[in-house]
Design goal:
Radius of gyration: 25 Å
Structural class: alpha/beta
Number of helices: 13
Helix content: 10-25%
Strand content: 25-35%
Number of strands: 35
Length: 585
């Protein structure tokens, strides 16, 4: 396989849009001996996400012990699903399902037959205590509805939380305590409605603030205290205003809208993160030579990756620790292609739910093993010879180098993370050959309508714990388009009520599913657009923001260009890093 080391324009076989395969991409594909992709980066990402259900949980019996369990596989899933103790036990043998490879049939067809027969583990919440409803998570305690989170305690409805305590409705918070509705925050505590903040305490409604304490409704502050709407107050005046502020739903919404309006008058750095070298993406930190990566940290030589940490020299990996790997999802891998949900796995291909293993091809559910194909053991030499024959066969069928087709996902499309980032209607999904799961009609008996919930937490007594509260999304008619997975109703737990009282926040009117959807929409899309810095010398291009100091380009417009997740039609003022740092250090 020889390609010229210059870029090539291709047409995506899925969306039919054109995309570019760049010289660095070709060099990687040559190194791992796969052909260039037939899907564009966005469609490849979507395909990986169709293999990942994070948030849709179901009650069903364990297929081995019969115990009632919480699982990510809906009751209509045809294969066996085991609880964690059974799956990790010696009570079953994954090699019983082994079979020879049939060179008269496509690989994916044979692999799908195997994966539907091998037991799958209901959830992944390793070493967790009293945290049954947590998924893809590790070492959590007394927590509920957490995903991709670890070392958390007394946390609810969170995503990508790390070393957090008493945090509710938070997305990507780290080393945090007593936070509510906060996104992308590190080392923050005793605060509500923070976004993109670091080292902030006892604050309210902040965005892009660092080292702040006792601040309210402000944007872009650095090492400040007693600021209210970006204006300095005395300690006494600030504390008086906080005491007088009534944390009602109406006032909270007013302040959140005010912050969104305020931030439009300040420059935004073209990416969120720090310490990047020759790289593009968003929510990135300590990265080098990476292209189109999102929520990545401590990586180098990555391309088209998402939620990847401490990795290098890989392309198209999602939620992974990866080295020299391609098209992987939910893994710790090295030298591997198309591995999903397994760790650590080395020198392996097209396998699922395998752990502590190396040299696997087309395997499911193996642990501490080597030299296996379709769950059948081989001697090393025989394995290597057969592996090359299968690769040659997959090249002929057009399967080699492609991730598992979305139509073969074990989940319905609307159960997967793909629906969050690439939403489809049921009609669109079915027309593409994808599964769709219609939950049974919920028959909750609503005892408290959302409009009748008291406006402040001080008006709420313990009787709220006995109520079944209707989600306001049902009354607003937004469930068909904006909130298709709405839970329709919810209840408040004692721990949750205590949290709201402690932080002085009213009971929500939306279910946790709809609240999560609102948080996702606050983040920029995981896409990039080429733009120029909007610094026009002494002010922003739209003249809304007046620069505080002279920049390196003087009175002329900044010459810097970049790729950013802020699409051109958005209202934010977007500056390059140099101009942004000059204004908001």
């Amino acid at each position: 396989m020889v390609h010229p080391m210059n870029e090539e324009i291709k047409t995506c076989q899925n969306c039919k849009n054109q995309f570019t395969v760049e010289p660095d991409d070709f060099a990687f594909y040559e190194k791992i001996k796969v052909p260039p992709p037939t899907f564009c980066p966005q469609c490849r990402y979507q395909r990986r996400l169709t293999n990942r259900n994070e948030w849709n949980f179901y009650r069903r019996p364990c297929s081995l012990c019969g115990k009632s369990i919480v699982a990510i596989y809906n009751p209509e899933y045809p294969g066996p699903v085991y609880c964690q103790p059974c799956w990790w036990s010696d009570g079953w043998d994954p090699f019983v399902y082994g079979r020879e490879f049939d060179f008269s049939r496509p690989f994916f067809e044979q692999f799908q037959e195997l994966r539907l027969q091998v037991p799958h583990v209901a959830m992944t919440n390793t070493q967790s205590v009293n945290s049954e409803y947590t998924n893809q998570s590790l070492s959590n305690r007394n927590s509920h509805m957490l995903v991709s989170s670890e070392y958390c305690e007394n946390c609810l409805y969170g995503y990508w939380n790390n070393k957090a305590r008493e945090c509710v409705d938070c997305y990507m918070v780290e080393q945090a305590e007593l936070l509510y509705e906060s996104l992308n925050c590190t080392n923050c505590s005793h605060s509500v409605y923070l976004e993109d903040c670091v080292d902030c305490t006892v604050s309210y409604f902040l965005k892009d603030c660092r080292g702040c304490a006792s601040c309210f409704g402000s944007y872009g502050l650095r090492n400040k205290s007693y600021y209210w709407h970006n204006r300095q107050l005395t300690k006494e005046d600030y504390e008086r205003r906080v005491r007088e502020f009534v944390f009602s739903r109406a006032n909270i919404e007013k302040e959140r809208n005010a912050l969104r309006g305020l931030e439009k008058g300040f420059p935004h750095k073209y990416y969120r993160g720090k310490n990047i070298v020759n790289s593009t993406g968003d929510y990135i930190q300590d990265i080098k030579n990476a292209h189109m990566v999102f929520n990545c940290r401590d990586v180098e030589y990555l391309r088209y990756c998402q939620d990847v940490w401490r990795s290098k020299d890989s392309i198209d990996c999602t939620e992974a620790y990866a080295e020299l790997s391609y098209e992987c999802e939910g893994v710790i891998v090295n030298g591997s292609i198309a591995i999903t949900k397994g760790f650590p796995v080395f020198n392996s291909y097209y396998s699922e739910l395998c752990f502590n293993s190396h040299d696997l091809f087309g395997c499911v559910g193996l642990n501490k093993t080597e030299y296996c194909i379709l769950n059948r053991r081989y001697e090393k030499a025989e394995y290597l010879s057969l592996r090359e024959k299968i690769i040659a066969h997959m090249k002929q069928t057009g399967e080699w180098g492609e991730f598992f087709p979305a139509r073969l996902s074990l989940f319905a499309y609307n159960e997967t993370v793909a629906q969050d980032y690439f939403p489809l209607t049921k009609e669109d999904a079915v027309s593409r050959g994808l599964q769709w799961h219609d939950r049974k009609e919920r028959e909750y008996k609503i005892t408290l309508k959302p409009h009748n919930i008291p406006e402040t937490i001080r008006e709420v007594d313990d009787g709220i714990l006995q109520e079944t509260i209707g989600c306001i999304s049902q009354e607003s008619g937004e469930t068909k388009n904006k909130y298709p997975n709405c839970a329709t109703a919810f209840r408040i737990t004692p721990m949750e009520l205590e949290f709201y009282r402690q932080i002085n926040i009213p009971i929500p009117q939306k279910c946790s599913v709809c609240r999560r959807q609102d948080r996702l929409e606050m983040r920029n899309p995981r896409r990039m657009w080429k733009r120029a810095c909007q610094c026009a010398g002494t002010h922003s291009e739209n003249r809304i923001y007046q620069n505080a100091i002279r920049h390196f380009h003087g009175a002329q417009s900044c010459p810097n260009e970049f790729e950013t997740s802020y699409m051109p039609e958005r209202p934010e003022i977007v500056y390059c890093e140099q101009c942004y740092q000059a204004e908001i250090a």
